[in-house]
Amino acid sequence: METLRFVAAWVIGAEQREANGMVSAIGAVVLKEIVVEFRNRSLLYTLLLFTVVVVLILAFALMEKTIAPELFVAFCWIVLFFLAIQSGARSFAAEYERETVVLLHTLVSGYAVFWGKVVYQVGMVTFLMSIAAALLLLVFDVPIASMAGFWLTLGVSSILMGAMVPIFSALIARSQMKGALLPVLAFPVFVPLMRLGIEGMLDAVLKQLHMHTLILMVAYAGIVITLAAMLFDYVWRE
Amino acid sequence: MKAILIGLGVVGGIIVGLVPAVHRPRPRWWMALCVGGMGLTIALGLLPPLSGTFRDAVITWRQVNPELYVPVAGTLDWDAAVASGDTLVVPMTDRAIPPTTAQVLIPSALFVPKDASVVILAVQRWKNDQQFVVQGIVAADPILALPFIPGLEERARNLFFHVPLSWVAVVAYAYALWYAVLFLRRRRFIDDVHSVSAVSIGTLFALLATVTGSIWAKFNWGSFWNWDPRETSIFLLLLIYAAYFALRQSIEEPQRRAQIAAVYAIVAFVTVPFLVFIMPRLMEGLHPGSASDQTAGPILSTQPGVLHPLKQIVFALSMFSFSLLFFWLLSLRVRSGILALRHKIQQVQEISETS
Amino acid sequence: MEAFLIRYSIYVVFLIVFVIWIGIAGWLWRLERRLVELEQWARQHEGNRP
User: Fold this and answer.
1) pLDDT at C50 (0 to 100)
2) Do chains C and A touch (3 or more CB pairs under 8 A)?
């Protein structure tokens, strides 16, 4: 009963917030993230470098031009997992270090901060992952059965992985040993999504994509992200 | 019938476990119920001899291991016994439905009580499907007997220990989730004590489930670890809750630690239903009830005769007793946690009074 | 020897498990009693506090 009331209150509360103000607040957070990132582009460069290095190492190791589709899918997911984790590793910790938390606390609601971070993270992961996948496709000659299915799964996976990271990066923001803790916390929760995503991508690469895999992925990630949005304030507010 | 029995064990265990509230002392009857229930589970789970049929003996000889002796329960027809050299050839009617009669070759040195109406003999197929060599007597007129399952033999008894352990771990994690939600709502440190105690004891149970399963797998599947979907999922569960403790450990401020741990406990629990109830059933695996299995497994299958009535009773009893054991351990842990919390609060008060 | 093992090995397993359980149960029972004492003591001492 207590929980039901809690859920109901949250839903009503979200409705009561002004829709327009909300969107612009989220937009402001996203814009702020982009501006801060483009001041030195350190994260962007690090992750780009990571992507290129991974592809290069794979290219050096597997000189032959054709690789098994299964191997290709595995490479994609290794890159995707570490991109998602690394892009979120310092997202909240940096706010505390730069002491910009106070500003965020006073200027926007926790709700806006969460969704702003989610949008930014999703954009970042999807952008980098599409570069990584394009590079992998360029370097290796992979026979792919359904190109559209492959890109669709890749897109959905990157979006969901990116959207699931912020809650974990917020959880570790104030702990010691931040960097080491994030993959440990996030990995088990990511596993069901990764399991489904790898299965879906394999289907797309070998035969054709089954829509129900994508639906299951969206359902699972949807539950995690909704919970994360509901609980974010408890992590964010002191 | 089966659903009612097992449901009674599962729900009853949780209800009786929660009846004296977790933070209260356990009454004497409650502790006696737990100790007695578990003792009865161990006795009923391990003591009754296995009793098979001639069919089982033939299947075992053909498909499992021709050297294995199979306990066959049946009635010996001593009047038709014929001596041939050192052995007695006696017709025996087993308790299968419909019963089959076959000849058993009993060494004359082996003592088999003639007045027993039902004997369980360790037999092995000999020459043809109608003749069996007897190696020893397992039991005479047993009060209770568990069914013999070719390929599982005595290892089938693991059902009464391994399954409840992993079930209780899930109950523990659900309990931790509930108190994590309560903590976020009420901000009472006692709720955090409940949550963290449930996670630590749940993890102990999950570890024990892994150990019992893994030893069993060594003897049944050939190696300690096979990356069966359920093995993967319990591994991930252990990982999740190990991460939970790592997270707690890395935050110093108590208020913040409790808050962040509560949020993680809630988010992490989303994976539990998927890992425990969905994934192992969708994927092909070695555990009963996986996609490659014809039935939903011995516990959930609705087919009649999948689980022997005695096994149903013992399984329900063991679910009940393991739940009580969990709540007992939880209660001890929670109460000592509350005492420690009170002690800390007093210390803080003393310091603030003196300064 | 083998016949002996077939007949009695499960009883040996039972005995080991049963003894372990009695040990655990006794330990829990004692812990329970000591915890009750401790709780009483804590309650009394908190009561005396100004």
Assistant:
1) 42
2) no
Note the pLDDT tens digit of each residue in B94-148. Answer: 888 889 999 999 988 888 888 889 999 888 988 888 899 998 888 888 888 888 8
Taking only the tens place, the pLDDT of each residue in A132-159 is 999 988 888 888 888 899 999 999 999 9
Which residue of B182, B250, B266 is in closest CB contact with A176? B250
Same domain, B330 and B236: yes
1-40 of B, contacting C, C-beta below 8 A:
25-26, 31, 34-35, 38-39
User: Do B199 and B310 have their domain in common?
Assistant: yes
How far is the C-alpha of B121 from the C-alpha of B70, rounded, in Å? 8
Q: Which residue of B has its CA nearest to A168?
A: B264
Q: For B200-218, what is the mean pLDDT?
A: 94
Residue B56 sits in the same domain as residue B186:
no
Angstroms from B294 CA to nearest CA on chain C = 30
The residue ranges of DSSP E strands in chain B, in sequence order, are 50-51, 70-76, 82-84, 87-94, 101-107, 119-126, 128-140, 146-147
Min Cα separation B31/chain C (Å) = 8
Question: Which DSSP letter does residue B153 get?
Answer: G
Q: Is C2–B135 a contact, with Cβ atoms under 8 angstroms apart? A: yes
Q: Is the domain of B182 the same as that of B203? A: yes
Residues B200, B331, single domain; the answer is yes
CA distance A231 to B263: 6
Q: Where are the domains of chain A?
A: 2-236
B35 and B131 fall within a common domain: no
Interchain CB distance below 8 Å, B46 and C28: no
| Complex confidence, ipTM | 0.87
What backbone phi and psi angles, to 5 degrees, belong to B103? -95, 135
Flag whether residue C5 sits within 8 Å of chain B, measured between CB atoms. Answer: no
The domain limits of chain C are 1-50
Phi, psi (degrees; rounded to nearest 5) at A108: -130, 160
Structural domain boundaries, residue B222: 2-48+152-354
